[in-house]
Amino acid sequence: MIDGMSLHRSLTDPSLQSINFLNEVVARYPEAISFAPGAPFEEFFDEVSIEDCINRYSVHTAEKVGISFLAARRRLFQYGPSQGLIGDLIAKSLRSDFTMDIDASSIVVTVGCQEAMFLVLRALFSSTRDVLAVVEPCFPGILGAAKLLDIEVVGLEEREGSFDRRQLDRLCDHARARGKRVRALYVAPDYSNPTGSILSEEARLELLEAAGAEDFFLLEDNAYGFTADPTEARPTLKALDQDRRVIYLGTFAKIGFPGARVGFAVADQMTSTRGGGEIPLAKELAAIKSMLTVNTSPICQAVIGGLLLQHNCSLASLARKKSLFYRSNLKALLEALDRKFGTLAQLGKVSWNAPAGGFFVRLRLPVSADEALLDLSARQYGVLWTPMRIFYCSAESCPEIRLSCSNLTEALISEGVTRLAKFVQGLPGV
Amino acid sequence: MIDGMSLHRSLTDPSLQSINFLNEVVARYPEAISFAPGAPFEEFFDEVSIEDCINRYSVHTAEKVGISFLAARRRLFQYGPSQGLIGDLIAKSLRSDFTMDIDASSIVVTVGCQEAMFLVLRALFSSTRDVLAVVEPCFPGILGAAKLLDIEVVGLEEREGSFDRRQLDRLCDHARARGKRVRALYVAPDYSNPTGSILSEEARLELLEAAGAEDFFLLEDNAYGFTADPTEARPTLKALDQDRRVIYLGTFAKIGFPGARVGFAVADQMTSTRGGGEIPLAKELAAIKSMLTVNTSPICQAVIGGLLLQHNCSLASLARKKSLFYRSNLKALLEALDRKFGTLAQLGKVSWNAPAGGFFVRLRLPVSADEALLDLSARQYGVLWTPMRIFYCSAESCPEIRLSCSNLTEALISEGVTRLAKFVQGLPGV
Is B316 helix (H, G, I), strand (E, B) or coil? Predict the structure, then answer.
């Protein structure tokens, strides 16, 4: 028997424990309508032919490299470069969709965005002096990756459209006063997980300015930007980045599919080597990756590469139908909330935000929302959601929940909100 | 510009740098005959149909879970459990081939064996007090994973057939004297990488006894055991493990294919939880994995699952043809060495070992074998190999090289050894 307390401290951290618990709850109530996971809509998967994608990518490689189709196919089964195979296709798509002028040598292809986060943290955080700041509430994966590396995390409170510059300055000052430094700030400027918030272009420029003034990196997570109405899309931080302050984190989990486990980091910061040369930070990330997962499955990269080729390397084209679907679902969720919670809202018992994109809505309840309450909601009312508490770096109590509309039909959204309303009406103080 | 010295220290570690350099050299001389990488023979890949494997696994899941084929297929495109999908099939194959009685709940499916190593190290090594011992020379991936986590590594010299119990005891004593402890010993008892050495059954039992006496875990890497002549196969450490001292690390890179990036850890040690319960260590590894790569690609797991199902979950059946091929190649390499190096060996200028399995032979030269020498060998003689130095935790000079015979035909092995002989005859002191 191993004493659990003798294992690494991340394993007893409340955030890791919470996520385990949530997964268990979701698995325990398979019949419940689930607003819990930010998983993409599954019917989209039926359109993907793995074999076609692999063949398309193999033809492309054969032509590009000047080898036979068979030789190109064999490459996918062998070990591959740690930095990845499809950096050039990703670079092309970033150029066409985001006017981000990135060389393929500045891209590392990763096992989902999660590995990209880990690689960036491992590279940049070299001592206990380095502190990670996160705009919170935030994606728990960044918190978990930091825990694995014993990195101290501090939270910067999210504001809709903007951020609190004075609080950010205080965080940096406070770190300095303790002999530390804020090494990087994690932020999801486009329809963040879990709140669906967005940063204005003005706030983006100010964030870049702050990063320069305080000398930290910005880790930009853009998992949900693709859900924007094209007329409302804002430039990414990376597209505005004049000073190579931004490391951009991308994923194909939502616009492709999660089962491919393909994400990437854009890290074009030039880095001095011991030999006196310089290489993009992405190459250092690849060196770390070689000791973590060796390389991202070339089979999976070929599937995503094949999808990109099918859409002429335009993420916008690849994502168009999905973007419409998710905006439509989000609208349905907000309308259902209006219908079912309007009266309670007038009484000040509940409130929610109304994002224009992303997968999520934040709903404030009159009581603290914890795992016990979730279990009650699932068991008695047949509806699942995520306590907002797990998105904060300090696990205090929180009266908010996250509602995800991504993996539901409009009919299920409507029925789910009806159940949710019954559940809320049963709460003390309502 | 980032100062490379401000990044994590693993990035300036000689072992990570060496591996980068080696990859560059190999890429620079594509026409050279390469005894360098331990990559599997590529023609085997042509027999694998990704689509067939995925379909076979989906049919299996549909029957097992009682869902439609379409629903089973959709699961592969979605997020999946961090612990993996094919633990039951792996458990079945371990039972049938190694008489290892492992429950699926004690298995975590990983992104190659490399991620399994990282997960185990992260879970077990909770403070700077914990030291990792490795039987060396050893697979550099375990050294690299330790570097990422700032884990101190000490080497136990490999002996053919046995190990030096007194040196092991001294390592443990020395750690204790410094207020530390040897937390685990990494060992590849079956045709180790890089030397092809094997531990006798007696030595295996003694190693298990030592682990109990000194209270450390054994990390058993069995990437190459499948190449054994069935009449010569020895029981794995895990099969002999009465006291749950062994964490078993497996990979499908060699008996399946590397591009799937599917490996696994068997960790059946019961672990106390804060709530007063107990869970297998594998579940803790899965919790760490959820913050590293979330889950191993279900697509890739389905491909490997499909291969296992095709062979009735017998690794022996899956590996039979490959095992014969690699033993035949190894024999061809040893015979070519006899032919071309026999005279030099009689003069005491060179020597090599003669493993009965695995991918590798260790050749001792009369001079130190470093990257510069490799570059010379590739440029002037058209033959690549791996300096043995990178397989040690302290990067001192070493006169040995590793020859891999896995991804060559017999004709290329013969020609490669002829070139190697010319190269060695040109060395000073020969």
Answer: helix
Q: Which of A11, A260, A293 faces B123 most closely, judged by CB atoms?
A: A11
Number of Cβ within 10 Å of residue A124's Cβ equals 25
Distance between CA A344 and CA A336 in Å, rounded? Answer: 13
Those residues whose C-beta lies under 8 Å from the C-beta of residue A182, and which sit 6 or more positions away, are A131, A132, A133, A154, A171, A172, A175, A214, A216
Q: What is the DSSP letter of B256?
A: T
Q: Burial, B197: exposed, middle or buried (Cβ in 10 Å; 0-12, 13-18, 19+)? A: buried
In Å, how far is A241's CA from the nearest CA of chain B?
14
Edge-first strand listing for the sheet containing A263-266: A107-110, A263-266, A246-251, A217-221, A181-187, A130-136, A152-157
Mark the ranges of chain A whose per-residue pLDDT is less than 70: 395
Do A356 and A329 contact (CB within 8 A), yes or no? no
| Distance (Å, whole) CA B134 – CA B220 | 11
Q: What is the average per-residue pLDDT within B380-398?
A: 91
Q: Which positions in chain B touch A37 (Cβ < 8 Å)?
A: 79
Interchain contact, B114 vs A291, CB within 8 Å: yes
Where residue B394 falls among pLDDT bands split at 50, 70, 90?
confident
Cis peptide bond upstream of B81, omega within 30: no
Put simply, the answer to whether B74 touches A42 (Cβ < 8 Å) is: yes
| CA distances (Å), origin B192, targets B15, B35, B224, B391 | 19, 16, 7, 11
pLDDT for A18:
76
| 8 Å CB contact between A253 and A113 | yes
Q: CA of A143: which chain B residue's CA is closest?
A: B291
Question: Which residue do the tokens 């990109």 mark?
Answer: A308
For CA atoms B323, B325, B327, B329, give the dihedral sign: negative
Residue A59 has a pLDDT of 98
Strands A270-272 and A278-280: antiparallel
* Residue pLDDT, tens place only, B38-92: 999 999 999 999 999 999 999 999 999 999 999 999 999 999 999 999 999 999 9
What is the value of pTM for the model shown? 0.97
Contact across the interface for A295 and B261, Cβ inside 8 Å: yes
Pick among B31, B77, B118, B130 to test the A interface (most A CBs inside 10 A)? B77
- Residue position matching structure tokens 């891999």: B404
Across the interface, do A144 and B290 touch by the CB < 8 Å criterion?
Answer: yes
CB A326 within 8 A of CB A405: yes
Chain A residue with CA closest to B216: the answer is A2
**Local structure of residue B104 (DSSP, 8 states):** G
Model ipTM?
Answer: 0.97
What pLDDT is recorded for position A315?
85
Q: How far off is chain B from A295, nearest CA to CA, in Å?
A: 8
pLDDT single digits (tens) B211-253: 999 999 999 999 999 999 988 889 999 999 999 999 999 999 9
User: pLDDT over 70 for what percent of chain B?
Assistant: 100
Residues of B with Cβ-Cβ distance to A40 under 8 angstroms:
78
Q: Check B274 against A147: CB less than 8 A apart.
A: no
What pLDDT, on the 0 to 100 scale, is given for residue A395? 64
pLDDT band at B395 (very low <50, low <70, confident <90, very high): low
